[in-house]
Design a protein that fits this description.
This protein is mainly β. The protein has a domain of about 90 residues. It contains one helix and 29 strands.
């Protein structure tokens, strides 16, 4: 999450589609989860680190990026920490990266950790081998949108990155790019323009986007890209990404307040990939990573960290209405679903057929 411009508020035609949700209090006394969910503390920020955000998981290890209060354009020249944990919350190793740590994803093909820094400007990428702890630093070619880069999604041999903090409105630059490694440089190509045409899910209307805050990204269970345009208070869902059939959908986000529906911004969104597992999410304001358990999750459900609430909840992907589950938070951000039905918290995958420039620098 970056320092954002004033939210781009949308007129929402959702009142007729809202389901009955319990009223949500803005000021609960402490973090708490609605039954039947159970909330516990996974880890707190180690000494010298603060503002935990992005979370990545490889087998039975968890990696958390700490923003440490540094400037999101890297202009202060400071470094951030990425802490590797065991599943019991004990620390394995701490990595230091130059700049403000933000996007953090595990490459499922190579089992290397990709860490993006400086989401507002002057971005860099560090790829970490968790086995050897070796790091390699990459710079980016010129940022065509004028800002930085925020988050990463891997899909097969493709690498997609969200283009954050655009310099212009309308944002005629890219909102999502495809990335290729060549030497020590990340070369980029536009995948989705900030002013792309889209279909609004609640109303079925054709709209032209003006994405002013592309931020977190993930894949849904169907393999669609899901982009959080944070300050715009919406999700953008891209099907058939990178093909002639590519299509963008817009889902404005809201939640029910005592005074009726209100737009709300979110940070990370994750989808449950089985009924077995748990959710980890970080709260930057509380300097804590929490664990959310349930006996059985509904496969394919969408959970999100609504920093504009602030709460963690589930999203109705038809209406965009978010139902709070965990309240009493300050600034929730990073969120992942840990699927325990898979072998050792993660399936091995092959990178056969992928070019070396796509994924692996070893």
């Amino acid at each position: 999450m970056k320092f954002r411009k004033l939210p781009y508020l949308l007129g929402l035609a959702l009142a007729s589609t809202l389901v009955a949700l319990p009223a949500f209090s803005q000021t609960p006394s402490a973090p708490q989860a609605a039954a039947p969910y159970k909330l516990s503390v996974f880890a707190t920020a180690p000494s010298g680190s603060s503002a935990p955000d992005s979370i990545a998981v490889l087998h039975d290890h968890v990696f958390v990026g700490y923003g440490d209060g540094h400037l999101p354009d890297g202009s202060d020249g400071l470094s951030s920490q990425i802490v590797e944990y065991r599943m019991d919350g004990s620390i394995v190793h701490t990595y230091t990266v130059l700049g403000h740590s933000d996007g953090l994803k595990m490459n499922p093909l190579t089992h290397q950790l990709w860490a993006l820094q400086n989401e507002d400007a002057n971005p860099n990428l560090v790829i970490i081998d968790p086995e050897t702890h070796h790091q390699r630093f990459f710079t980016f070619s010129a940022t065509p949108h004028g800002g930085g880069y925020d988050d990463i999604v891997f899909r097969g041999c493709q690498v997609f990155i969200s283009a954050s903090n655009p310099a212009n409105s309308p944002n005629t630059g890219p909102a999502i790019i495809s990335a290729h490694l060549e030497g020590g440089v990340v070369n980029v190509e536009t995948l989705l323009a900030g002013t792309a045409n889209a279909t609004d899910i609640p109303t079925d209307a054709a709209v032209q986007l003006n994405l002013q805050d592309p931020d977190s990204m993930t894949l849904d269970p169907q393999g669609n890209l899901v982009l959080d345009s944070q300050g715009d208070q919406m999700l953008i869902i891209i099907s058939d990404a990178g093909t002639p059939m590519q299509r963008a959908l817009r889902l404005p986000l809201s939640y029910l307040t005592p005074n009726g529906p209100a737009p709300v911004e979110v940070d990370d969104t994750a989808f449950t990939t089985s009924s077995e597992g748990f959710i980890l999410f970080a709260d930057k304001g509380l300097n804590t990573i929490f664990r959310l358990d349930k006996q059985a999750f509904a496969p394919g459900a969408a959970y999100t960290a609504a920093d504009g609430g602030p709460f963690v909840g589930t999203i109705d992907l038809t209406t965009g209405v978010i139902s709070p589950i965990v309240t009493g938070l300050k600034n929730p951000g990073g969120l992942v679903f840990v699927d325990t039905s898979k072998r050792e918290f993660g399936d091995d995958e092959s990178n056969a057929g992928c070019g070396e420039h796509d994924h692996d620098w070893r």
